[in-house]
Amino acid sequence: MSKSELTKLSLEILEKLSQASEVTRITYEGPAIAIYTKSPEVFLTDPTLISELATRFKKRLLLRSEPDVRIEPEIARDMIIGILKETGFKEAEIKIFFDSIRGEVHIYLPRYVKGDIIKQVTIEIAKKTKWIARFKTYHREVPQVFKDIYSALLFGGRDKISQRILSNIGDRIFRQALNPSKDIRITGLGGVEEVGRSAFLVETSESKILLDFGVKVNANKRSDFAPRIDALDLILNDLDAVILSHAHLDHSGLIPLLYKYGYRGPVYMTEPTLPLAVLLQEDFIDITRKSGLSTLYSEHDIKEMIRHVITLKYNQVTDVAPDIKLTFSNAGHILGSAMVHLHIVEGVYNILYTGDFKFGQTRLLDAANANFTRVETLIMESTYGGRNDILRNRKEEEMLFCKEVKKVLERKGKVLIPTPAVGRAQEMLTVLYNYIKKEEREEYKIPEVNVYIDGMIEDANKVHIVYLDYLNIRIKSLFRETDENPFNVDYIVPISKPSDRDEAINDPDPAIILSTSGMLQGGPVIEYLKNLAHDPRNAIIFVSYQAENTLGRRIVEGEKSIDLIDEDGRITTVNINMEVLKFDGFTGHSDRRQLLGFVSRLKHLLKQVYIVHGEVSKIRNLSGTITQFFELPAAPLKMLDTVYLR
Ligand code: ZN
């Protein structure tokens, strides 16, 4: 929709509304349309006003209050607490955060409140403060990462500059297209013939879109750390959008760097991806500092990113450029992970980028979506795409895992499970919960021992609880129906500071320790490894992918003596006498069978497949099989190769 169409639409909307609605203007807000009013309470009292307009004009309409009329946040906070106290909440339980870009106040309460009460309270808050309230529930406390996000969104509270960010993005999305969208092309900038630093540039003659912008933490040289955007003749502000598939650092890690170098456009992601990505980016800076290296970007750049984030729900079709529509759908990999579907309007071309995806059920998530009506080009990951990457089914894998854990605990040993903080950690806690609390068969039942969790796992757990809607139905109802759940159970002991690690290491009883990082590239897991490796009663159990050149991979491949460098530069040699085990079946990636199954589901739609995000031999092998088996052109996408899509 062009500017002149917006003006026409504005006039029509204004005509439909009464004077009492006090609408001041209608503008773009990113890809949606915002109706600004001095009296948001009028619309909140009668929600049909907006929904009828949205249906009539087939647009996503958002209600916003005029920044001038909003009460200062500090004063509004007291007023809101006053209103909520009347519904029975104590002051200390009510957590309030302001988003001055959207004029929203997010209120976190420790208990779920009925819809009709929420409606009344929202109207009253709007009447008195002119802020529009959104309610969320929290367990125990609101995670720190949310506080960091809100502090980036607060600005001066009533600052007009803040909401200009989103209207500028809208102006750009809905600009008059100057070029026909021909010459659709993709360039691999990272995550091609490797795992790490995923980044792909999608271009038409009208627009440019970046898919993911990750970091390769296990790079041999620092120059291989980042996607090769430097090799292109690209001005960052010529990008129409950055689209993030999921929070893991190998996809999200360097997005703040784009803002550091002046990019001021939008970055699209799902709702849970924002806090998870910020959590991992903050930790990435922290770990880099601790290892004595200079950081690539600062907290300031993360804040700039947060201000430009537009969150979308699954299956919500959104304009991101004059000729491109984006739709996210469930990727089944981690909380909020998305497959990216791009519909190029003119010429009607469709690209599906899987990101990391699991075409199979896990304890936490539903299998990745495979219902698409149009996909001509598929860009697919292949982490477990090798000839031998046929994984055991989940049930079998869980039972074998439990038997091994049980054995270690029975010989009075400790089980160390290195895991990424987001995704696999929650999956493993859920597996443990089932075999500690619910299992009845003696051979699989894991004794109830302390389960220590370290390095941001607890923070990531809390984010999962805020976004239960993104988890599968079984786990959702488990969390909603009882207080005890896989993240909140007596045996879990979160380690909150380094000095507490001794408690876990010296626990006189057998215990299980889950700690980051998953590939032993730094993080607290190193401390545990140092202290537990000498004792053959202990075991280290890998449950996630171990990339080439990582310490994890070396140990899996049988190295028995490793040198570790301390924070103060001293070298310690550690002998690995502990048992080393590896279970691939818990992966959040599709195995070879699932990858081929996914291609098979889409094959009647596809014209070609590009394979990315895997080791060279696996990518070649998988491409070969797809070409042969489905008679479908499949090839690796190569570094800095540009392929034209037809
Ligand atoms: Zn991932």
Compact overview of the structure:
By secondary structure, the protein is α/β, with parallel strands linked by helices. Helix content is 33%, strand content 21%.
Please describe what this structure looks like:
The chain is of the alpha/beta class and about 650 residues long. The chain has three domains: about 1-175, GMP Synthetase, Chain A, domain 3, CATH 3.30.300.230; about 185-390 and about 590-645, Ribonuclease Z/Hydroxyacylglutathione hydrolase-like (Metallo-beta-lactamase, Chain A, 4-Layer Sandwich); about 395-585, 3-Layer(aba) Sandwich (Rossmann fold), CATH 3.40.50. Helix content is about 35%, strand content about 20%. The protein contains 20 helices and 28 strands. It has a seven-stranded mixed sheet with strand order 12-11-10-9-8-7-28. A seven-stranded mixed sheet has the order 13-14-15-16-17-26-27, with helices on one face. The chain is globular, with a radius of gyration of 25 Å. Bound molecules: zinc ion (ZN). Zinc ion binds near residues 246, 248 and 333.
